[in-house]
Design goal:
The structure is a single chain. The protein has 372 residues and is α/β, with parallel strands linked by helices. The chain contains 13 helices and 8 strands. Strands 1, 2, 3, 4, 5, 6, 7 and 8 form an 8-stranded mixed β-sheet that branches. The longest helix is centred in the first third of the chain and has 35 residues.
């Protein structure tokens, strides 16, 4: 255990968790609210932060703020960043690199302007549409985060994900590797921006292969508690009917798939441990992960896909308040479980209905015989 973690754990009364932050454009303000509420708790500490896209942005901004000003510094850094993103008006809006196109009402970025952009990005690549690779997020990050300081002095362990374009594999960048290019790579939507080059490799948004990744917590962190802050709804009650709704749901399912795979692995290991299937000599080789989740299904269900690019301050603060409310509900119900047990039912919430076997409904001649 590192010195910072040991100091925080003194007395055994600290609640130490790892946070996994999903991406989702301006919907990342929901995670801002969750983080803001957690920072109100003086005895809850963060050992590791894993983030993808907007989750990576929240992670580095939070780590920067806490490095310089503790919990209050983290809260201030997050608020300052999101306020600046609203004032800039284009950090999450993909229309910023089209100054030659003037559409009435663009300031509010409505569904009509989103449809225009969708048509353009299906016709032209970012190498044609945005040849100078203009992205105001880079400048805002450089203004908001001391990346040199993070690499050298940050006590929180950072794990930021990006997708290697060539290999199709996830690349996890650790604290010592964090830079503005790493965050830009993690947030690089390939239909809008050129791939980000780092060390002779090119990267796209990390959500394709890890939104976010959890496995670094298992190997790099001492705390067994992992809290996932969801931005992409796992479930939607209404069937998507319009083209944007269908595309959005496809993206949500795709960006949640890697998370579900990791949940299946965690669930398998948990069963091995809890049902005493391991030989004594192997029991200390596996970590019993305690999973918690702050879901966004109901909080964000009524928002259209175009809202992921809405940077109006009133909208961002509304998302923040929704995130704070969800975190408040979670703390009231589950605070005492930290360090003791999982509060997320992996089977029912991620893998299928409670008590169901993954092969339920599969013809017997195609089912895998578990006894083999």
């Amino acid at each position: 255990m590192d010195r910072a973690m040991s100091a925080r754990s003194a007395g055994g009364k600290r609640k130490i968790i790892n946070l996994a932050l999903q991406g989702g454009g301006s919907h990342g303000a929901f995670a801002w609210g969750v983080l803001d509420r957690l920072l109100d708790e003086p005895d809850i500490d963060f050992e590791g932060l894993s983030g993808t896209s907007a989750g990576a942005v929240n992670a580095v901004v939070l780590a920067h703020g806490m490095m310089n000003g503790g919990r209050k510094g983290g809260q201030k850094a997050l608020e300052d960043f999101w306020r600046s993103s609203s004032h800039g008006g284009s950090v999450w809006s993909p229309m910023h690199h089209l100054p030659q196109i003037e559409i009435p009402g663009m300031e509010a970025f409505n569904a009509a302007s989103f449809a225009v952009l969708d048509t353009l990005t299906r016709t032209f690549s970012p190498y044609e549409l945005n040849p100078f690779d203009v992205n105001p997020l880079r400048d805002l990050l450089l203004e908001s985060v001391d990346f040199d300081g993070l690499r050298d002095h940050c006590d929180i362990k950072l794990f930021l994900s990006a997708t290697n374009v060539r290999s199709g594999r996830v690349r996890v960048f650790k604290t010592s590797e964090v830079s503005v290019d790493v965050v830009m790579a993690s947030a690089c939507l390939p239909f809008l921006y050129k791939a980000v080059e780092i060390g002779n490799e090119h990267y796209w948004d990390g959500g394709y292969m890890g939104n976010p990744v959890l496995f670094p917590f298992f190997y790099e962190c001492d705390s067994r508690d992992v809290m996932i802050v969801h931005i992409n709804p796992m479930e939607r009650h209404d069937l998507p009917m319009t083209a944007p709704e269908i595309l959005n749901r496809i993206n949500e399912i795709s960006f949640n798939s890697s998370l579900i795979d990791e949940m299946r692995a965690i669930n398998f290991v948990t069963r091995l441990i809890e049902e005493d299937w391991l030989k004594d000599e192997h029991k200390d080789k596996l970590k019993h992960i305690l999973v918690h989740s702050v879901r966004s299904d109901e909080a964000l269900e009524n928002l259209p896909v175009s809202s992921k690019f809405d940077v109006r301050w009133s909208f961002l603060t509304d998302l923040r308040d929704r995130g704070r409310a969800e975190a408040e509900s979670w703390l009231k119900a589950n605070r005492d479980a930290i360090g003791k047990r999982s509060t997320a039912d992996l089977q029912s919430q991620y893998l299928g209905r409670a008590g169901a076997h993954p092969l339920d409904g599969v013809p017997e001649d195609k089912a895998i015989n578990e006894s083999n």
